[in-house]
């Protein structure tokens, strides 16, 4: 099925579990493909293929072939689409091809098109997180960590003007920065640490720039219009793809639990800790109204500030010596937001246990759960008076 045509020289198709671009004119291609990767000028296709489902499906024979015999994998996929193996670069993911998203950005005849698929629910990570394997002379050696689940951001960019090989590398850098910016704006948690994610463990990219054009770009940095368009196209396509594949939108991220999940919080723990600290008469009331409390924008805003304070302490911007005072005071603001009464934050600082807020995620979460309980208990305390 033909999905689109870009600047009259690239056709985009979807066939079963692949989305692929066919170049109608020569393009210089930079890709992370395991076969035909690097920079090439003789490719006719750029392919994105779904090799498995996102959850509990990475043990399929197709995934095994992809890892152990990429040439065989590529031949199997391209032959089904009628594509010549030597003329294609192929990228692989667990995302559904029906969720591929496209975004154009143009200026004065320059056109950049981004096509993305994105799954980050299980494999989002931050650069520098603990690894699961190492490459040795004898092959891949496990480092004793569980096999990472599926989840990949695939980025394909198409540009209607020529880029030098060096400019293609800069374009890949700018596209990666745009990807990370989107993930940070959506508070995407790393699944391997308590930090925000910068991507997934298996992200891949392919960039194709038309050859033989009058304009030749020797750079694509953020000061250039080309760099700006790459960032805009990448951001737009990725936001759409995250929505389609994961339901990840700004509205969906407006949640106290979402902001806290990278520290180990869950809905079950959140509710259990808070109701345990509430007076018995208020427990059912809280549980029945949990969704509204969790998504209340003023409360979420105070929770985000609480989380940001924790990050600033972890990153060394704020000294650990101020962790208790800073987080305790912010917890008071959270209680005030939940309560909805114009009381000074100090009003809520009861006998909360603080523990080791700088290093212990459990203590960090327990304090905020206590703040919710204190605020909700005060919200309906007392009788209505004229």
In short:
The protein has 386 residues and is α+β, with helices and mostly antiparallel strands. Helix content is 38%, strand content 22%. The chain has eleven helices and 17 strands.
Task: Explain this structure.
This protein is an alpha+beta fold and 386 residues long. The protein folds into 2 domains: 2-246, L-amino peptidase D-ALA esterase/amidase, CATH 3.60.70; 256-379, no CATH class. The chain is 38% helix and 22% strand. It has helices spanning 61-68, 70-81, 165-185, 225-246, 256-260, 267-277, 280-288, 290-295, 297-314, 323-339, 361-379; strands at residues 2-6, 10-15, 18-23, 27-31, 38-40, 45-50, 88-93, 101-107, 110-118, 124-125, 133-136, 139-142, 153-159, 162-163, 199-200, 204-210, 216-217. It has a 6-stranded mixed β-sheet, covered by helices on one side. Strands 1-2-3-6-7 form a 5-stranded mixed β-sheet, covered by helices on one side. Helix 9 (297-314) runs antiparallel to helix 10. It starts with a strand and ends in a 7-residue tail after the last helix.
Task: Estimate the helix proportion, in percent.
Answer: 25-40%
Number of helices: 11
SSE series: EEEEEEHHEEEEEEEEHEEEHHHHHHHH
Q: What's the total count of β strands? A: 17
Q: Under the CATH scheme, which architecture of the largest domain would be assigned? A: 4-Layer Sandwich
- Which stretches are low in confidence, meaning pLDDT under 50 for 5 or more residues running? none
What's the CATH first level of the largest domain?
A: Alpha Beta
Number of domains: 2
């Amino acid at each position: 099925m033909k999905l689109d045509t870009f600047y009259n020289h690239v056709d985009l198709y979807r066939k079963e579990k692949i989305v692929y671009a066919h170049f109608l004119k020569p393009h210089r291609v930079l890709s992370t493909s395991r076969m035909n990767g690097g920079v090439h000028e003789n490719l006719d296709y750029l392919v994105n293929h779904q090799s498995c489902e996102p959850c509990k499906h990475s043990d399929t024979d197709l995934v095994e072939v992809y890892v152990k015999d990429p040439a065989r994998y590529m031949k199997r996929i391209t032959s089904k689409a009628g594509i010549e193996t030597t003329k294609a670069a192929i990228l692989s993911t667990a995302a559904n091809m029906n969720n591929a998203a496209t975004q154009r950005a143009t200026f004065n005849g320059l056109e950049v098109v981004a096509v993305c698929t994105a799954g980050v629910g299980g494999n989002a990570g931050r650069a520098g997180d603990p690894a699961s394997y190492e490459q040795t002379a004898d092959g891949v050696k496990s480092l004793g960590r569980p096999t990472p689940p599926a989840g990949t951001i695939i980025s394909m960019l198409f540009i209607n003007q020529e880029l030098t090989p060096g400019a293609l590398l800069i374009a890949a850098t700018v596209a990666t920065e745009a990807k990370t910016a989107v993930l940070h704006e959506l508070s995407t948690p790393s699944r391997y640490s308590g930090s925000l994610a910068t991507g997934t463990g298996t992200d891949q990219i392919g960039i194709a720039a038309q050859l033989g054009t009058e304009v030749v770009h020797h750079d694509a940095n953020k000061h250039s219009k080309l760099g700006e368009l790459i960032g805009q196209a990448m951001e737009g396509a990725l936001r759409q793809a995250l929505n389609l594949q994961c339901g990840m939108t700004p509205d969906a991220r407006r949640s106290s639990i979402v902001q806290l999940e990278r520290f180990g919080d869950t809905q079950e723990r959140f509710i259990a800790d808070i109701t345990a600290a509430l007076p018995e008469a208020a427990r059912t009331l809280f549980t029945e109204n949990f969704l509204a409390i969790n998504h209340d924008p003023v409360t979420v805003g105070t929770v985000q500030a609480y989380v940001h304070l924790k990050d600033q302490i972890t990153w060394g911007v704020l000294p650990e010596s101020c962790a208790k005072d800073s987080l305790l005071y912010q917890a008071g603001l959270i209680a005030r937001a939940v309560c909805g009464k114009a009381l000074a934050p100090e009003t809520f600082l009861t006998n909360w246990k603080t523990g080791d807020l700088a290093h212990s995620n459990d203590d960090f979460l327990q304090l905020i759960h206590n703040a919710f309980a204190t605020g909700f208990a005060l919200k309906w305390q007392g009788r209505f008076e004229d």
